Amino acid sequence: MGGVARRIGRRLGWLALALPLGAQAVDAPWRLSGFGTLGLAATDTREVGFIRDLGQPYPGVRNHLNARPDSRLGVQLDLRFTETLRGAAQVVSKQQWDGSFRPTLTAAYLAYNPVGNLEIRAGRLGVHQVLGTDSRDVGYAHLWVRPNVEGLGFMPFNHFDGVDLKEDISLGASTRLTLKAFTGLAYEKVPVAGSDPIDFAGSSVAGLAVDLQRGPWQARLVWDHWRNANNFPASIAILQQGLQYYAGILQDPRLLASADAINPTGSKADFRSLALAYEKGPIQFHGSIGRLTRDRPALPDSWSGYLSLGWRLGAFVPYATFSRAVSDRPPVPELGAMPSLPDPVSQALVGGVRDLMRAGAMDQRTVSAGLRWDFAENADLKFQVDRVSAHDSTAGWQVIQPGWNGRATVFTVTLDFIFGRGR
Amino acid sequence: MRRALLLPALLLLAGLPAGSEPQAGMIRPGGPLHGPSAPYDPDALVIIVNPASGVNRLTQDEVVNLFMGREKRLPSGLVALPVEPVGRRELRERFYERLVNLPLVQVKTYWARMYFSGLAQPPRQARDSEEVIEMVLANKGAVGFVERSKVDARVKSVLVLGQPSHP
What is the model's pLDDT at position B164? Predict the structure, then answer.
């Protein structure tokens, strides 16, 4: 933990030397800027590990201070070639699926504005999801210490290589319609405790987003779709082969159905959501509801959403959030006892299917209270307490110990900052 | 005779003060941009553009869209170049309070979201009002805001942001 903080501190110190604020030429055709968060989190239990999204590894945050999950540092270079052609690259150092802080390229694209407000981008881009998720690594940009875990933590990837289009249209006075569409290939990985990671390389993603802005109100409708390539951990393939093998021997259709139900290759998922935001004067309201559907019966569909209200009092914004994620009951019944199979085989098959179904299910709610303090021009300090109740291993949790009562409190402090001439 | 008429007409089109014709380029206490009932507001901010921008008036909604990165072009079709004086904090606070009823820090978090996700580009940065005027003079598509007292005949005024109309 201290090592991470020291490393981040060293990088920051180097950047501060290299980028004295305001020293760049005014209106330069390039702009170097960045963002960062130093975060400390701890829970009140050692029976479960807290993670902020699926990309984070074992063991997660437990009952001692951990700086890894929320700390990050990003640097962005913007170039303006002509009035209508620009480019940008962004590198972020944050905890990877393998636990390292290896910097990764999170954006690298060219953007062209051929006519009106139409902008076409090509390269490495962010997935358009619920409001604000394209900037989920930028703590300063948001009210909370981290993106909502129930509302967003289950998204297996946030970036892709491809193209997107954006058009902005006026619908009469003070009403704006923004349309976004994207398509491309995913490349991120999701760690699996005790196994190889799930590699989304080659999985195709596409989506549409419609934003309506009227005065202080903003609404966003999103439809994201993805199709998984065959890059899943060997353990799933072995389980699948086992089920198929014994289905042939025992002529048991339940085993064959289970083998199909867990087959990830070529599986599809859709996420549809509606988000609403209101920002005026001191008030900051955000809410969203989303529906995740998947075409494999072993991976249940689910609802997720959150409501958040903040109230600015000068430099302070107290806020409260309620969020919930819940899966439908799995449509595939769990395999019952297999008396005709030897015990170890039966346990491996039945247990394997059950674990996989549980890993894809969510049932948790969180009530959070926090305070944002804008103590400096380009920095804030936040303190947040989350009270979580969970019934399954879900988006916010890794490696649940037997006997966990499903309740935990997460305490987090973050220092967020931005630098350079991006604001 | 015709030539004699042409010059004032051109000046009028360019938004420069010419004759007594009421038009957007003129800023006077109780002048045409205020209406008879609006009291004189010494803190008013004036939105200015380049005389060659092809723009004579902007509505408050159009200025919101330009400064919040939602509109890339001026009504005349030129690529817009919004400019703000980063060295004048109190001016920016007043501007965003009157424009979108948001504290400046809220506008900054908005831009952190938009800019670091590459969805929009924030206004260009000038040091002070004098530099805003210089940038407006140097770029046909530039649009800036300055105090009323800084407005001069070289730039065209297209909107006055007076006291916020909202409570």
Answer: 63
Q: Give residue B118's identity as a one-letter amino acid code.
A: G
A367's tokens:
């009530």
ipTM here: 0.86
What is the predicted pLDDT for the residue at A26? 47
Name every residue in B having a CB less than 8 A away from some CB of A.
59, 61, 64-65, 70-73, 79, 86, 100-103, 105-106, 108-119, 121-122, 124-127, 131, 135, 141
The pTM of the full predicted model, rounded to 2 decimals, is: 0.84
Give the residue on B whose Cα is nearest the Cα of A122: B118
CA dihedral (A344, A349, A351, A352) positive or negative: positive
Least confidently predicted of A37-46, A349-358, B83-92, B153-162 = A349-358
Alpha helices in A300-401 (DSSP H): 343-359
Residue A398 phi, psi (nearest 5): -125, 140
pLDDT mean across residues, chain A? 85
Q: DSSP readout, B129-149?
A: HHHHHHHHHH-TTEEEEEEGG
Asked if the Cβ–Cβ distance from A168 to B126 is below 8 Å, we say no
Query: Which 3 state secondary structure label does DSSP give A410?
Result: strand
Cα angle, residue A371 at apex, residues A76 and B106 outer, rounded to 5°? 50
Q: What is the CA radius of gyration of chain A?
A: 23
Q: Which residue has the tokens 């920002």?
A: A279
How many residues does this entry show for chain A? 423
Going by their DSSP bridges, the two strands B124-126 and B81-85 should be labelled as parallel
B112 vs A141: CB contact, 8 Å cut-off? Answer: yes
**Nearest to A280, CA basis, from B103, B119, B58:** B103
The closest alpha carbon to B158, from B60, B82, B73, B64, belongs to B60
Interface mutation vs chain B, best among A21, A24, A26, A160, most B CBs within 10 Å? A26
Instruction: Give phi and psi for A94, each to the nearest 5.
Output: -150, 175
Q: How many residues does chain B have?
A: 167
Residue numbers in A near B117 (CB within 8 A): 126, 134-135
**Residues of chain B found within 8 Å of residue A168, distances taken between Cβ atoms:** 70-72
